[in-house]
Amino acid sequence: MREKYYIDMILINNRIIDQPIIDPHTKKHKDHIDHSLIKEVVLSLHGDQYIPVARKDDFLYFATNINYNNSFYKLVWLLQDYETYIGVITLYKDRRINEIS
Fold it and tell me: What is the domain count for the chain?
């Protein structure tokens, strides 16, 4: 079951976002990922523009490298047309990344 949270409004790709919805797949990485970290990483997206890696129907899919607290993560997420939530598909520590370009 997906978990929903409310956050202070942020702006991603010129869209107002007020809710992360977290996919259960994130539990696969529970040894180093929890919901508070996911919310902090989502908040770090505020104010920026991101290029989607795919579009399917009314969903845009993204895969973003994030440097948070001196660790590198891969955030896989989506935005749905005309909605105010961000769907977090997964977040994991990516040891292959050593800098954000």
Answer: 1
